[in-house]
Structures are given as C-alpha cells and as structure tokens.
Amino acid sequence: MSTDLHSHLSAVAPVVTAAFAWGLHGKTHLCSDGQPGLPRHYRYPIDVSYNLYYIYINTNCIHADSEIKPMPDLKEILKNSLFNQIDDSVSAPISIRLPTILNNELDELSLSFDRSKSSLISEFIKAGVVTANELLKEHSLISAEMKEQLVDQREDSAASFLDRKAFMLNTNYNNDVETHFDMVKNQEAAAFCEGWKEYICQLSKGDKVYLYQSGVGIIASGVVDGELVKSEHYGVADDKYAKPLKDFKTGFKAISARRFKELTGGGANFRRTMIELTSMQANAIAQEIEKLTAKQ
After folding, report:
1. What is the dihedral of CA 267, 189, 219, 160, to 10 degrees?
2. Do 107 and 223 belong together in one domain?
3. Is residue 89 part of a domain?
4. Which of 7, 45, 115, 199 registers the highest number of CB atoms within 10 A of its CB?
5. What is the pTM of this model?
6. 8 A C-beta contact, residue 242 and residue 186
7. Number of structural domains, the chain?
C-alpha cells in the first residue's frame, strides 16, 4: 500500500490516525513498504470514503519481531467514526416521577445488585425499547392484500411526474447494521425480507426519499432514479428490494425526531419501515438539509 493511500486513510477519520500511531509507537508497521503520513483532516465524498474504508479493513495485519499478528479489529470503530452519527458517550438528562412503591422496589434492586438507580433505570428502558421495536416491526408487516396493491406501482411517465411523492425510509439499523451502511454506500432505498421488502414497490421515479437511522435521525436523502432491483439477502433469493437514488446527500448533521417535530410541527412513526410524508413535511426537511449541507 502506498504512502499516499496511508495519508488518505489517516485523513478520513481521527480513529484511523490513532490506529497508525498505535502501530508506529509499538515499533510495528502495517503490511506495506511505506510509512503512513498523518496530515490534517479532509472531507471526502461518501463513495471515496467508503472505498478507503474497505481498502483499510482488508489490510488487517501488522508485522512485529518477524511475526505476523492480527491487527486489532477496528471495523466497528471505523464504521462508527466514518458513517454513523450514534454517540453513546453523550447522555441526555430526563426527569421522571415514579409511584412510591415502584421507587422502593428500585431501591431494593439497587442495593441487591450494587448498581445505581440511574443505571438500572437505563437498562430497564433499553429492554423496553427493544421490546417496543419488535412490536412495531410486527405492526409494519405488510399484509397479503397490501402486497398486491404495492406491486402495482405508480406510472413513471412524464404525465404523472408532477404527482411525485416524498417518503421516509428506515435504514433497518436496529435489525441489521450492515444493511444500514450498505444502503448509504450504494446510495439506494432498500428493504428486506417478505412482508417489508414490498414497501420499495411503492416508490416511483422522481420520488424523494429520506433515509432515517433509528435513534439518530434523517441521515441522507435522494431521488428515486431507476427500476426495482431484486437480489439475494443472506442466501435467500430476491429477499432484498432496492431502487437507486440520485442527487444523494449525506454527511450532514442528522435531523433527529425532536428536530423533525420542530421543523414540521408534528411527529411521525419513525420506526415504521416506510411512511409517506406530507408536502409540508417534505419541504421543511428539504430546506433544513439545504441549510445543513451549505455549512459543510
């Protein structure tokens, strides 16, 4: 691997620079004949960032004392740094009132497990969120009757082009992190598995799609520009439905559910696989993305 490529990789994200520094200070070097540079940070188009990222994770060994050793698995760290706006290190204070008896039980559990009440509450909420997500997932399952309706796609002709719609598509992050990253990398709108993949049939050329990452917000947008593509998903034929997106925008600060409500004056079912937005909602989000991308 060339010195220039090392320089590009280290510029993509601080964590890559840290990885190189770790190798150098440990008197080791990456499997290459060049020394990595450590320049200032630069911004790269999303496709370039992904190419650099995948090249980097495939160069996963180091040489030390004439022994080949596996490099620490940085795949997840890199993903979080490059393409994920989730930050578990930041917490938000909330205030809740509990019935006295429930508070007493919480005190008992806190003393029994030697854990703080706040940490226990956090864990209970996490478990509740997981359960709620499963219920919402089942609720968004498309019925057999709906499938037939969705397969009959709207016309893509010029006559119907003025009847374009806007949708918010969940990137499936909570169920499968890889599908989230692939959707952004491939610049596509996709859904997976029987009962959910059929949502993509609802999209027509010219429709605006906003990609929503659960727990984060709207992280990308694009315009449908192509036919339905069916492909295998975890070995199951045609278990992935996708349509390519043009005018793809990402890398801006995520538009959270709270910010969505501030911009549109209302909420939405953010955990449903895909929902149609009103023209007012779509315009408000489009304007916000324009402002955010202008700052980049």
Report:
1. -60
2. no
3. no
4. 199
5. 0.58
6. yes
7. 3
221 falls within a domain: yes
Same domain, 42 and 79: yes
Task: Specify the residue for token string 């090392």.
Answer: 6
What angle, 0 to 180 degrees and rounded to 10, lies between the N-to-C axes of helices 75-83 and 14-25? 150
Are both 285 and 149 inside the same structural domain?
Answer: yes
CA dihedral 202, 205, 206, 210 (to 10 degrees): 50
Is residue 225 included in any domain, yes or no? yes
Give the list of residues 6+ apart from residue 230 with CB closer than 8 angstroms, or none: 238, 240, 241
Share the mean pLDDT of the chain: 75
Q: Is there a single domain that holds both residue 149 and residue 268?
A: yes
The conformational region for residue 66 under phi > 0 = left, psi -120 to 50 = alpha, else beta, is: left
Q: Residue 127: which domain range? A: 100-138
In this structure, are residues 146 and 198 in contact, taking their beta carbons and an 8 Å threshold?
A: yes
At 25-50, the pLDDT tens digits run: 443 333 433 434 434 444 445 555 55
**Can you tell me whether residue 246 is helix, strand or coil?**
strand
DSSP letter, residue 205:
T
Spatial separation of the C-alpha atoms in residues 109 and 122, rounded to whole Å: 13
